[in-house]
Amino acid sequence: MFREYDKVFIKNTGISGEIVDIYEVNNIKIYTVESDKRGVPGGIGYDGDYKLFHCKEEELQLTHS
What we know:
Blueprint: E1 7-10, E2 15-25, E3 28-35, E4 52-56, E5 60-62
Antiparallel strand pairs: 1-2, 1-5, 2-3, 3-4
């Protein structure tokens, strides 16, 4: 289980970032990860430089940085 502000790696994209929100949909936890690099492809960003990604727990790996 992950917590807000944990540093994580998104396994299928290779993108690293920080968990900025956690919510549930149909009893499944969804983690919103903000990329730690500018201009990464994909995600949503609302015209921002740092994209957001919605991930399930199994898509994430905790990092040590």
